[in-house]
Design a protein that fits this description.
Layout (H helix, E strand, L loop, with lengths): L1 H16 L3 H9 L1 H19 L6 E5 L2 E4 H25 L6 H18 L17 H27 L6 H17 L6 H18 L7 H23 L1
Antiparallel strand pairs: 1-2
Helix pairs in contact: 1-3, 1-5, 1-6, 2-3, 3-4, 4-5, 6-7, 6-9, 7-8, 7-9, 8-9
């Protein structure tokens, strides 16, 4: 599972953390923007899995593909998938909604799972979690950048809310990151800090601060709480 978790972390970084509002607009305008976005994936994949790239990832009888070939395949398929998504949205008016967003992510993760050697390069006794850091990285991205896009699509579907500006987007991400970090407090201090932080999140919305919506609280706080709790278990065990 070493390769899978590292690839998944690279995917989340490239598809969310490094896909800024400007990159998202650019990739929908022309092929160069799309290539720039998609090229981030193989770069991160190569950096995160570099020690294993020359070794075979897929082997079946006399057929074999090493890590470099698998990274290239992931890049090409990701590019085709994203191009198809943009094409269908603009050509056939396919709803760019929450379900389409989640389905797109399912396809990307399934492809990573398909090329990742699940049992190679790690001690079998390590099981599902051979390394902590890439999983922690995944949880942090899910709690911040992934949830920001998920919340946007939900708000768009139900309320027609436009894509958040940079300040609003990162303000809400910062408060979810703060909640996740509360779970790293030692001993029995973390429930107190997490509860206080959640209370402050609700307080900002009661005060009707424009950059903080109730949807982001109802969706983002539980998601960040789950990621924080899982991160705590992983980090301290």
């Amino acid at each position: 599972m070493i390769i899978f978790w590292r690839l998944l972390f690279g995917h989340l970084l490239a598809d969310f953390t490094l896909q800024t509002n400007a990159v998202n607009r650019w990739k929908r305008k022309n092929i160069f923007g799309m290539l720039f976005h998609c090229a981030m994936h193989p770069v991160l994949y190569a950096l995160l899995t570099y020690p294993y790239l020359s070794r075979p990832w897929i082997e079946w009888k006399s057929f074999s593909l090493n890590g470099w070939a698998c990274v290239i395949i992931l890049f090409l398929v990701h590019w085709l998938e994203d191009e198809w998504r943009v094409f269908t949205i603009f050509k056939y008016r396919t709803p760019d909604n929450t379900l389409y967003f989640l389905w797109d992510q399912v396809i990307h993760v399934a492809l990573i799972f398909a090329v990742a050697p699940l049992l190679a390069f790690s001690n079998p006794s390590q099981g599902f979690i051979p390394e902590k850091w890439p999983i922690l990285g995944c949880l942090f991205v899910i709690a911040t950048h992934f949830s920001a896009i998920l919340i946007y699509f939900i708000e768009q579907d139900f309320f027609g809310t436009p894509f958040p500006g940079t300040f609003k987007k990162y303000s809400q991400m910062a408060e979810r990151l703060g909640l996740v970090l509360c779970f790293f407090a030692p001993h029995d201090l973390w429930p107190v800090l997490a509860s206080a932080w959640i209370g402050s999140m609700a307080f900002l919305r009661i005060k009707k601060r424009d950059q903080f919506s109730w949807t982001s609280f109802l969706i983002g706080a539980p998601l960040a709480g789950i990621c924080g709790f899982l991160s705590r278990i992983l980090y301290y065990h």
